[in-house]
Write a structure and sequence with these properties.
The complex is a heterodimer of chains A (about 180) and B (about 425).
Chain A lengths: L4 H11 L3 H23 L2 H20 L8 H19 L18 H20 L2 H13 L3 H8 L3 H21 L1
Helix pairs in contact in A: 1-2, 2-3, 2-4, 3-4, 4-7, 6-8, 7-8
Chain B lengths: L14 H10 L5 H17 L11 H5 L4 H18 L2 H7 L9 H14 L3 H24 L7 H20 L8 H7 L9 H13 L3 E9 L3 E4 L2 E12 L7 E8 L5 E10 L8 E10 L5 E3 L2 E5 L13 E9 L4 E9 L7 E11 L3 E4 L2 E12 L7 E8 L5 E8 L2 H8 L19
Parallel strand pairs in B: 3-5, 8-10, 13-15
Antiparallel strand pairs in B: 1-2, 1-4, 2-3, 4-5, 6-7, 6-9, 7-8, 9-10, 11-12, 11-14, 12-13, 14-15
Helix pairs in contact in B: 4-6, 7-8, 8-10, 9-10
Classes of the chains: A mainly alpha (about 180), B alpha+beta (about 425).
Chain lengths: ~180, ~425
């Protein structure tokens, strides 16, 4: 997706430290980023921590005159993914049998447990993939990004994204079958 | 066009997993979003840049490059100085603080003196004097309770310190006196936000890359052990974040001749455990270290029992479950499970570049061959984070097909800090050269 004019203008205003623009950036992107972080990390608490750190870091780099010149959304998604990936490296995975705390309001507790178990298996498999493959798969099939949008996030070509997606799917299938 | 993201996936075995991930991830809690928003907006205000000083010639007058320009500017300034002020005014300006009408005069005089100083020793002496003046001004401002960040003042301090360092590298001068760091650090307790943040940035800049990052293995009163390195603490050492054995800490200071470190600042990079057991699971190839221990990825360890290594040999891809053992001051493998190579003979790995030679590079304790067919994206330097795609020939040599260097900015964003993170076993030399 080509970068919208409004995002470009927003970034320009943010670079001039326009507080309204900085607030708008948060309001525009934080909800989706927090959900994305929660999906990767499997924890609302850690997602909150992740988004707080990512936005703090964004301000710091902006303040130093660095940071994104374009494709702000792509930049923020990459930061969130990297943060989550590094968190994986710091901690041991949760045992699968400790999973599946069933949401109280779910119509079918059995189905909810199965779904949570599947989601956690996917998370654990994604952690074992190379970072860029995992990023492509989650953006494509969780966030619904197009190939062009993922290419913006990775700062690479659409062809390279297709190759990463292909290898990622192969590896992911194998990991899930092994587990 | 699929309605749901996972429907774009052709693979029917994977679709239910992504569907489960999407359906089991709720929308974010508005209360959490608001909490983070409030903190973010506070930070926006705290980091608001100070308006630039309204002195249009300031940047030009700093350090003209050409000799004729220096003389022209110096002469003009000198005449201007004589015309505008008398000697008494110049003397009175010596005690002026930022915000005072005489303060610009004080800075003009310093610029003029520096432009007149031709030999390196004199320039070094002047830079030292002016750096001290800036620190004294910071102290005086704090004593007056003026908690206003003065970026221009801090920038000028760093400018003098940078100039001293540059002179030390190119000329036989005494260089940057290390006590500057201590002097600025002593101001921290009295400073409040956002002045404190600005001061911390100045301290950070004064450190000039002297740091050590690793796992805190033992802490005693004044000697801590970080990745086999003895770190000495003094009453001046700033400790941030209650570091506990097992945490990843960053030590800022100086390596001493006896291979110990003098710490000026220790902070927690990541809490790995503290009171609870520290465990990680890591997948990689098993290899032997020079001192007879074992290694997977970046982690060096000993097996909990020799039986774990039965039927395993070097190069085997394994999933290792590791526990930090405070008694041994090291990682212990509690489980080693062989795993099949992911894609036939092809492998993708990532890690920190530990050594680089003409035709090979060392990542995660293994040498990888670079061939004329290898595609290299980015600049290879020891210490950078790389992703490799490689294949193994029948002789067991790994040939790199593609190397990608992770860019520095992205690396920083991963840790939310301008400082680099080192692997659990990697000791970083001063300046991050690795």
């Amino acid at each position: 997706m080509p970068q919208s004019a409004s995002e470009r203008q927003l970034l320009q205003r943010a670079r001039a430290w326009d507080e309204a623009a900085l607030a708008e950036i948060y309001d525009r992107y934080a909800p989706a980023l927090m959900r994305y972080a929660a999906a990767l990390l499997g924890s609302q608490e850690e997602a909150e921590e992740c988004v707080a750190e990512v936005f703090a870091r964004f301000l710091t780099v902006l303040r130093e005159g660095r940071g994104p010149r374009r494709h702000l959304r792509a930049y923020l998604y990459r930061m969130v993914h990297n943060w989550a990936y590094d968190r994986f490296r710091e901690r041991a995975p949760l045992p699968l049998d400790a999973l599946a705390r069933q949401p109280a309001d779910h119509a079918d507790p059995g189905e909810a447990a199965a779904q949570a178990w599947q989601a956690e298996r996917l998370r654990q498999a994604l952690r074992q993939l190379p970072r860029r493959q995992a990023l492509v798969l989650t953006l494509r099939f969780f966030e619904g990004f197009s190939l062009e949008e993922v290419a913006e996030v990775l700062e690479t070509s659409v062809g390279a994204v297709k190759a990463l997606q292909h290898r990622g799917i192969e590896n992911l299938r194998r990991l899930l079958q092994e587990a | 066009m699929p309605e749901k993201p996972w429907q774009a996936l052709d693979d029917e075995t994977l679709q239910p997993y992504f569907q489960a991930l999407a359906e089991s991830t709720p929308e974010p809690d508005p209360e959490r979003l608001n909490r983070v928003r409030r903190a973010y907006l506070l930070l926006v205000r705290a980091l608001r840049p100070e308006p630039k000083a309204g002195w249009p010639l300031g940047r030009f007058l700093r350090w003209p490059q050409a000799a004729w320009a220096r003389w022209a500017v110096a002469a003009a300034m000198f005449l201007l100085l004589l015309w505008v002020t008398g000697a008494a005014t110049v003397r009175a300006a010596q005690n002026a603080l930022p915000g005072s009408p005489l303060y610009p005069l004080k800075r003009w005089q310093e610029t003029w003196l520096l432009m007149q100083a031709r030999d390196p020793q004199t320039r070094a002496r002047l830079h030292q004097t002016f750096a001290r003046r800036r620190i004294q001004e910071l102290r005086d401002l704090l004593a007056q309770g003026r908690q206003v960040p003065s970026e221009a003042l801090l920038e000028n301090l760093l400018l003098h310190v940078d100039a001293l360092s540059a002179l030390a590298q190119t000329q036989a001068t005494s260089g940057t006196p290390p006590e500057f760091l201590g002097e600025v650090a002593t101001l921290l307790p009295a400073a409040q936000e956002p002045y404190r943040t600005a001061l911390l940035r100045a301290v950070n800049a004064l450190l000039q890359g002297r740091r050590l990052v690793g796992i805190l293995q033992r802490r005693q009163a004044d000697v801590w052990q970080v990745d086999q390195v003895q770190v000495r603490l003094t009453p001046m050492t700033l400790i941030q974040g209650l570091p506990q054995p097992g945490d990843v800490v960053e030590v800022v200071g100086e390596p001493l001749d006896d291979k110990t470190w003098q710490a000026r600042w220790v902070r927690v990079v990541a809490h790995l455990g503290g009171a609870s057991p520290v465990e990680v699971t890591v997948v990689g190839e098993l290899s032997r270290t020079a001192d007879g221990r074992w290694r997977v990825g970046e982690f060096v360890f000993e097996p909990q029992s020799p039986a774990l290594l039965q039927n395993l040999r070097e190069d085997t891809l394994v999933e290792a479950r590791l526990r930090w053992d405070p008694k041994r001051d090291g990682w212990v493998a509690t489980s080693l499970r062989p795993k099949p190579v992911l894609t036939g003979q092809m492998r993708e790995i990532e890690g920190r570049l530990e050594a680089l030679e003409e035709n090979r590079l060392l990542v995660n304790g293994r040498w990888w061959a670079i061939t004329p067919e290898t595609t290299i994206e980015g600049r290879l330097d020891v210490g950078v984070w790389v992703e490799l795609e490689a294949w193994r020939d029948p002789q067991g040599v790994w040939h790199v097909v593609e190397i990608e260097v992770e860019d520095e900015e992205e690396e920083e964003s991963r840790y939310g800090t301008p400082w680099a993170f080192a692997s659990p076993n990697l000791q970083r030399a001063a300046g991050g050269a690795g």
